Amino acid sequence: MECRAGCGACCIVVSISSPIPGMPGGKPAGVRCVQLTPDNRCLLFGQPQRPVICGQLQPSREMCGSRDEEAFAYLAELERLTAP
Fold this sequence. Notes:
There is one protein chain. By secondary structure, the protein is mostly helical. It has one domain (9-82). The protein is 29% helix and 0% strand. It is built from three helices and no strands.
């Protein structure tokens, strides 16, 4: 499965503890990644500067749903369940 173009849920909803160019301390949950374009595309996709964790997250029907709202809700619940 491929990401739904323009969704960006994983770049907004989840926290990322790894440094990101422009966000050296990582990214808190619910904060838009600085590398996300206005149309929700990753500026680092395919680049060596992209955090490894971002490349490891693979889209799935369960995670992405059929609409952006479903992806946001699923990832928010996952973030809640895995928060320290």
